């Protein structure tokens, strides 16, 4: 149950007045920080996807102020693609705040999200794809889903995939995220073998021409396997959020979960 559902349930149960509910939603919509940020603090209530702070091209001071403001409203915030200066500024501004590495991201804050019953699977073609896949998993887990993951099962040794696929079928996920660089073949292979949506997550892993993720994303976009959708290169946040939205929607239709 996200924050919006909780507010609506409180109104329905008589624990919260409609006027106060409207105030709480309004308070969570936008918060302006100086002249550089307008934080969408109502996104989790409105959409079920948390605010994620993208660090690249922001100054360490801006990142620290944004994270501090988000943590005033929520117990955790995800910081995507920070450099060491960003991390140092956050730790200095928020002393005592737990900081956990999640691939190329940091999860700031304590506690765990409430489980929704949604389930996703996650596969990486190679170990080099892990930083991006783990970012996707951080976002998905922040949205309350359970994830079953397997790593280094790419097409260079396709026999490695058979065991994980059977375990994923037993786990019965609502969606599977597959991260791959190089030629990006693994998502198409997986999509042809499972009956749930697959999200292809191309990574900027590889040699020379196309090693920036171009070859991987083009290969995924040209797939002949139905049921495969593709996010942009290294977009772990988008892959994780989309997978969790699918899983949480499915879970909401199955009260027994």
Q: What name does CATH use for the topology of the largest domain?
A: Rossmann fold
Evaluate the radius of gyration.
19 Å
Task: Tell me the number of strands.
Answer: 11
Decide which structural class fits the backbone.
Answer: alpha/beta
Mean pLDDT: 90
**Element-by-element helix/strand order:** HHEEHEHEHEEEHEHEHEHEH
Portion in beta strands: 15-25%
- Main β-sheet description: 5 strands, parallel
Shape: globular
Q: What is the straight-line distance between the termini? A: 13 Å
Provide the CATH top-level class of the largest domain.
Answer: Alpha Beta
Strand order of the largest sheet: 8-7-9-10-11
Residue windows where pLDDT falls under 50 for at least 5 positions = none
Question: How many domains make up the 3D coordinates?
Answer: 2
What portion of residues is helical?
40-55%
